[in-house]
């Protein structure tokens, strides 16, 4: 058993957890997960994952690589198989799943037929949108993964699928049957893949060893209800191996079904509670502080809020059905936030009073309220170095107290923006930060 499969067992049995072994983190590498009549299947764990299947006509790869690490994966694959790449399936159009350039260069150099690339038809629109919002996407990912450290970057050189489909697609390649099914979930262009002969299920990001990424605060709409339906359908396949888009494989029919059904149950619960409260006409604020997830689900090793979290999913469900107005009248046409902050500071005796009270609230453990006051203090007196330091320290403390990559990235970004010294600091990678913060607590 290799280090990836060993981690998979340790995570499932509770010897390790995803707070300290993040689904996007280490260890990484290529491991054999099935040997079916000499047509082998490997699982590559990276920032995102790849599934490599041999056939009589060449390799079939689900998500061949990220745009930023496809060379590493390509080299790892070429150490175990010299079959040409026949078909690549992009489970969705996120940049960590659609890297393929090394295989294209190889096929051209060796005179092989060009690999077939398959994706859902909505991927075309996604790539066009990425071009439109290139810089914005760079800023988003800088906050999410780097805590605003460095420069925003986002690729534009996407390879468009040459074979697109809509609802579902059945293929037979080199004697291997492949089933592709579209499902709106994390994205509107998502595909999950099933190999019936080996009973291997490739979920893409519909399963990532964490609370589903259904609420990302900085990204476009997600679809909780349809996501849950897809999870139930995947569970019905009775797969023996689940290969996720991030994280480690799950081995065994019962484990696979449990993981998929419990993840569906979490999304169904959040969706039902949110819709029920919306139908009662209450505000988003009320819903956010009313909807709860059963502890029986959140204690599952594959449902920790290490990337996204339930509160953000509730917001996304509201956005899908309710638009952007949150039910608070003053938010409809608000005064500039800096003007609000100055008025609050004047009533409080100055920005420093707000900052000092924020420190008291932090020490009392009320981080939510502390951040409100720290932000008002900063906005009311953006040139005050003492206030800036207090505010930055409070948002850094908030980041250390959080579990999800989403929250950590935004709070670290706020802390950086508020620091007196606005140069590069040591806050850095949000995934490493979250793991280190967890280890400090332990």
Describe this structure in words.
With 442 residues, the protein is α/β, with parallel strands linked by helices. It has two domains: 3-267, Metallo-beta-lactamase domain (Metallo-beta-lactamase, Chain A, 4-Layer Sandwich), CATH 3.60.15.30; 335-441, Serine Threonine Protein Phosphatase 5, Tetratricopeptide repeat (Alpha Horseshoe). It is 44% helix and 15% strand. The protein is built from 16 helices and 13 strands. It has helices spanning 3-13, 70-78, 101-110, 122-132, 134-146, 224-235, 253-278, 284-288, 295-298, 310-322, 337-348, 351-363, 367-380, 385-401, 405-418, 430-441; strands spanning 29-36, 39-45, 49-53, 59-62, 85-89, 116-120, 163-165, 168-173, 176-182, 191-195, 200-204, 241-244, 250-251. Helix 11 crosses helix 12 and helix 13 (367-380) runs antiparallel to helix 14 (385-401). It starts with a helix and ends with a helix.
Count of folded domains: 2
- CATH architect. name of the largest domain: 4-Layer Sandwich
Distance between the termini: 28 Å
Largest sheet: 7 strands, mixed
Features:
single chain; 442 residues; alpha/beta; Metallo-beta-lactamase, Chain A; Serine Threonine Protein Phosphatase 5, Tetratricopeptide repeat; seven-stranded mixed beta sheet; six-stranded mixed beta sheet; 44% helix; elongated
């Amino acid at each position: 058993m290799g280090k990836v499969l060993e981690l998979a067992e340790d995570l499932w049995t509770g010897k390790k957890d995803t707070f300290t072994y993040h689904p996007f983190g280490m260890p990484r590498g290529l491991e054999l997960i099935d040997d079916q009549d000499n047509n082998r299947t490997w699982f590559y764990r990276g920032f995102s994952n790849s599934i490599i299947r041999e056939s009589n006509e060449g390799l079939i790869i689900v998500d061949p690589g990220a745009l930023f690490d496809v060379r590493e994966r390509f080299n790892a694959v070429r150490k175990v198989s010299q079959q040409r790449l026949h078909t690549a399936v992009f489970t969705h159009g996120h940049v960590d799943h659609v890297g393929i350039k090394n295989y294209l260069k190889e096929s051209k150099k060796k005179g092989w037929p060009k690999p077939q690339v398959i994706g859902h038809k909505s991927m075309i629109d996604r790539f066009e949108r990425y071009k439109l919002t290139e810089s914005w996407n760079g800023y988003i990912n800088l906050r999410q993964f780097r805590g605003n450290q460095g420069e925003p970057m986002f690729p534009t050189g996407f390879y468009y699928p040459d074979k697109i489909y809509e609802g579902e697609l059945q293929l037979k390649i080199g004697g291997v049957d492949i089933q592709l099914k579209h499902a709106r979930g994390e994205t509107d262009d998502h595909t999950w893949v099933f190999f019936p002969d080996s009973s291997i299920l490739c979920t893409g990001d519909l399963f990532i060893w964490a609370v589903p990424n259904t609420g990302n605060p900085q990204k476009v709409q997600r679809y909780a209800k349809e996501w849950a339906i897809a999870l139930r359908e995947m569970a019905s396949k009775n797969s023996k191996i689940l290969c996720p888009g991030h994280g480690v494989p799950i081995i065994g029919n019962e484990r696979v079904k449990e993981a998929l059904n419990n993840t569906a149950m979490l999304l169904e619960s959040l969706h039902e509670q949110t819709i029920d409260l919306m139908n009662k006409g209450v505000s988003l604020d009320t819903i956010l502080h009313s909807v709860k997830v059963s502890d029986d689900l959140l204690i599952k090793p594959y449902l920790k809020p290490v990337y996204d979290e339930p509160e953000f999913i509730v917001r996304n469900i509201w956005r899908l059905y309710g638009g952007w107005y949150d039910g608070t009248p003053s938010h409809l046409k608000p005064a500039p936030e800096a003007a609000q902050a100055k008025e609050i500071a004047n009533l409080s005796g100055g920005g420093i009073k707000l900052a000092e009270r924020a420190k008291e609230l932090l020490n009392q453990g009320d981080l939510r309220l502390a951040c409100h006051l720290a932000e008002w203090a900063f906005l009311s007196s953006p040139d005050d170095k003492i206030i800036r330091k207090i505010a930055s320290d409070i948002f850094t403390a908030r980041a250390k107290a959080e579990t999800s990559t989403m929250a950590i990235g935004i709070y670290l970004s706020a802390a950086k923006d508020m620091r007196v010294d606005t140069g590069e600091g040591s806050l850095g990678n949000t995934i490493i930060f979250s793991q280190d913060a967890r280890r400090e607590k332990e």
